[in-house]
Automatic annotation (TrEMBL):
This is Spermidine/putrescine ABC transporter substrate-binding protein. Gene3D superfamilies: MFS general substrate transporter like domains (1.20.1250.20). One of its GO terms (molecular function) is oxalate transmembrane transporter activity. The keyword Methyltransferase does not apply. Residues 1-416 form the Major facilitator superfamily (MFS) profile domain. It comes from Bradyrhizobium yuanmingense. It comes from the Bacteria. GO terms for cellular component: membrane. The chain crosses the membrane at residues 20-40, 60-80, 87-106, 112-132, 144-169, 175-195, 228-251, 328-347, 368-388, 394-412. Pfam families: MFS_1. Keywords: Membrane, Transmembrane, Transmembrane helix.
């Protein structure tokens, strides 16, 4: 073990195979925290049936979890920069296990909300560290690396949705919380021992005209003063809000539509519409994150955003109009999550391209807090649906995604290119001026 220049206590050699191993372990860790967000919807109605707290009150726990998960990431990223990723991920493993243990015994909303805070701290520690580490190991393939890492979070729940649903039905939601919580936390804790940052800065292989990347490492205070960061933040909030609402409310939506238990047959498989939808959602979400990351490495970040956000708007519009048809519900939600999850690969990659690799963990952590901001709309969706129906919620989400698609091309793209060009030109001018002064 050696200390790296940025203060990390662990380091790893620059071997090509080793960095892919690091990526793989990060993906597994992300898969272990996926159920804290994407498996939550399965527990909402069973918790309500047991305690009669109401969906809105229970969903507040989801919002608390997401806010805690995202808004504390910059703080956790600081610990990563100072002490390395190992200790932060170990902490995350303990906290995610403790969270579901508390959920299993929660007999009041206060304890349920406390468990959400604990889970948010743990999930944020794992998420922010793994994505930041991927950006540092793969500056030449940031979109793919961030997408693959985020895919663990997106698809990690796919293989456990059916077992969790079955365990809830057979043994109760408390037993499901306890069993899966301990197992997930243990896997993360063990893998934390082997995760390390790169020893040296790895430069991009080549400069691409459609993929502008800065050669300057901007500090977090500099990033917060840049207009392009806040433009990215706003678009992130606009897109994330619809996805978080759908992820948290998909079970209540299916029940209100009267199709949750309706059998659906696709490609030789038959399942209840809700279980089928959630399972396909996780698969499509997981596939979409690295796929769109790879696409963005090829054609550019903003054009990829435009295609993804536009498709998301179309799928939400389809759900609004035809969501009560079970097959349409399953396929439309799958397609929606297939293009929604890319925000967790595109925005980290765009952040790294714009602000550099040295402080990538902290800078991306600040941008990731947009997810927490967006989560504040999740309880509001329950209120709107009660007053005006789910169609009103879908229409609002369609409008936000359509606006975000246009802003990606018309606002973020020109702002980002101007920022990179101006900052590098300023640095060149200062270097030239210094050289002339020394020569004189």
């Amino acid at each position: 073990m050696i200390s790296s220049p940025d203060g990390a206590v662990t380091a790893a050699p620059l071997r090509t195979g080793f960095r892919w191993l690091q990526l793989g372990m990060g993906i597994v860790c992300m898969a272990m925290i996926a159920n804290l967000q994407y498996g939550w919807t399965l527990f909402v109605d069973p918790i309500d049936a047991a305690h009669h707290w109401g969906r809105t009150a229970i969903q507040l726990a989801f919002t608390i979890f997401v806010v805690t998960e995202t808004w504390l990431v910059p703080v956790e990223a600081w610990f990563v920069d100072k002490y390395g990723p190992r200790i932060v991920i170990m902490f995350g493993g303990v906290m995610i296990a403790l969270s579901w243990i508390l959920n299993a015994s929660a007999d009041s909303l206060t304890l349920l909300y406390a468990a959400a805070i604990v889970g948010g701290m743990g999930a944020g520690a794992v998420y922010g560290t793994c994505v930041g580490n991927a950006l540092k190991w793969f500056p030449d393939r940031r979109g793919l690396a961030a997408g693959a890492t985020a895919a663990g979070f997106g698809a990690g729940a796919a293989i456990t949705i059916v077992p969790i649903a079955s365990m809830i039905a057979s043994s109760g939601y408390q037993h499901a919380f306890l069993t899966f919580g301990i197992a997930q936390g243990l896997v993360v804790f063990v893998l934390a021992f082997f995760i390390q940052p790169p020893r040296l800065s790895i430069p991009p292989k080549k400069k691409q005209l459609n993929l502008p990347q800065t050669r300057i490492d901007f500090t977090p205070p500099q990033v917060l003063r840049s207009p392009v960061f806040w433009a990215m933040y706003l678009v992130f909030v606009m897109v994330a809000s619809g996805g978080l609402i759908t992820a948290a409310q998909i079970a209540p939506i299916a029940h209100d539509f009267g199709i949750a238990d309706t059998p659906v047959t696709l490609a030789g498989f038959q399942m209840a519409a809700l279980t089928f939808a959630i399972s396909l959602d996780r698969i499509f979400d997981g596939f979409g994150r690295p796929f769109f990351g790879w696409v963005s490495d090829t054609i550019g970040r903003e054009p990829t955003m435009f295609v993804a956000f536009g498709t998301a708007a179309l799928m939400l519009l389809t759900l609004s109009a035809y969501g009560r048809v079970p097959v349409v519900f399953v396929l439309a939600t799958a397609m929606y999550f297939g293009v929604f999850g890319e925000i967790y690969s595109l925005f980290p990659a765009t952040c790294g391209d714009t602000f550099g690799a040295k402080f990538a963990t902290t800078n991306n952590g600040m941008l990731y807090t947009a997810k927490g901001t967006a989560s504040l709309l999740v309880p509001l969706a329950s209120v709107i649906s009660t007053a005006y129906g789910w169609k009103a919620v879908f229409v609002l989400a369609v409008a936000l995604n359509a606006m975000a698609a246009l802003m990606a091309l018309l606002v973020i793209k020109p702002l980002r290119r101007a920022f990179i060009h101006d900052q590098e030109a300023e640095r060149t001018d200062k270097a030239t001026g210094t050289a002339k002064t020394e020569a004189a």
